[in-house]
Request: fold
Amino acid sequence: MTAPAIETAGLVKTFGDNRAVDGVDLTVPTGTVYGLLGPNGAGKTTVVRMLATLLRPDGGTARVFGHDVVREADAVRSRVSLTGQYASVDEDLTGTENLVLLARLLGHSRAQSRDRSAQLLTAFGLTEAADRQVKKYSGGMRRRIDIAASILNTPDLLFLDEPTTGLDPRSRNQVWDIVRIVVAAGTTVLLTTQYLDEADQLAGRIAVIDHGRVIAEGTPGELKSSIGAGTVHVRLRDAARRPEAERLLASVLGTTVQQGSDPVALTARADAGGSDQGAAELAARALARLAEAGIVVDDFSLGQPSLDEVFLALTDRPAPQEVPA
Amino acid sequence: MSTDTAESVTAYAPSRDTLGAVLARADRPKRPSALSASLTFGWRAVLKIKHVPEQLFDVTAFPIIMTLMFTYLFGGALAGSTGEYLQFFLPGIMVTSVVMITMYTGVGLNTDIEKGVFDRFRTLPVWRPAALVGMIFGDVLRYILAATTIMVVGLILGFRPEGGFPGVVGGIALLVVFSFAFSWIWTMFGLFLRSEKSVMGVSMLVLFPLTFLSNVFVEPSTMPGWLQAFVEVNPVTHLVSAIRSIMAGRPDMAEMTWTLVASAVLVLVFGSLTMRLYNRK
Reply:
């Protein structure tokens, strides 16, 4: 039997009094995308840094392809690559210089390094920017050069720490496409994210992390069925009709309806036992009832639960507010 | 953002073919040797100088100012004339300037390590100290530049070393060896202290007594006994004596040995402390 890509047991990391990672057990099979989902400060990055041999665990064990991350750190390093939350390339250097530098450090000859860099820059659409300093790149290009640097020697395990935070939607889709191609080529990906839809789009399995602990684990489908498939967002034309609309929605959807701070907004979970189809039917019925009652709706949408709603469902409290770094 | 940046974002769509080809698994090349990895990191330092040449201001303007200032400030009072003083003083001010410049190693590392790129270096399967050794290799180029600048200024002002060209080169070489070793103190502080400012603060606290309480500016025989005792064990004193002797064409083996042993001890002690911090960071 081959070892899983990642296997941790009771992993702990403390910073002073703060138990940033507090007993995490994970098993990540090879050849898949595994999502670590959680708010800022949940401990996702700390888990990744321990697995990437950057931090020494204070307790528990972690193995990458069967190698202990502390005792066999070099064996781990030869098989993994890290794309950190902040650019893990040298911003003063050009795209080509960064890639050639890393290729040389991985043992390629000068000529091989130049060839490999040119090949990667083409594959990542950065040929024109090859001789520009990375600090002059846009956010999306920076992410791409970062991922290109991570796959110089096609790694067996790639850590992507919040790869799309701060990116515009187009760049985010590009990163998603890249991740799909990387996984199809046989690399296992450990992805951390604050966005449920990102984990849903890419990951085969997801672990939800809060306060350094895994509070839920499973396939996206399993998680969604545990927290409700969707959320209905409604905006009314007339704020005076809101109490009436709220009663109608509550009776159709069978859940409590929340009033937004916006006086015309209402939000409710469309919980149909985890089935997307059921959620859509419920939402359609709710919209029909509002129309029958003559309530004008300006905006009506059925969306995935946000991370906030996932948290509400899993912990009965909202996700912690983002702390400015 | 410039328009060409926007265009390339629009134009790019990851292709399964080109990207897939890049991802094809090939035999991994052999891991580079410790020296080759260190030199590659040294190349990074040279590239950074190429992109930000202003950073050479520290190693050219500062030494020139130090040399002119102290020569004309103390020369008349201490040796009767600036020309006389320069014969005694130039090797010393060269040591003072270059040893002071070594602190930028710590400042540079401290700013560098805050950025994500060091995370990548630390996850590479290369000889662990290579990133730091390479960084100091880059700094050694700066030390050579600073020492050469001072020597040129000195020669213009009237410094005439009896050891001739070989003496000057030998003296600078010994200074560079010592400065390389001394830099490991700053890599330690650069990793240990939280901000660039605190690295600067500690550097000054160490460097001022070390360079001024030595034989650089005046003969130690004019100092009170307790101060002479400190000057006598100060490695900068021995380095300056060694360099003076080499540049005068009469190399003092005892002082040279003292300096080389001190350099080895510095690398051993502060190099291993640095690596401990680097691995734990």
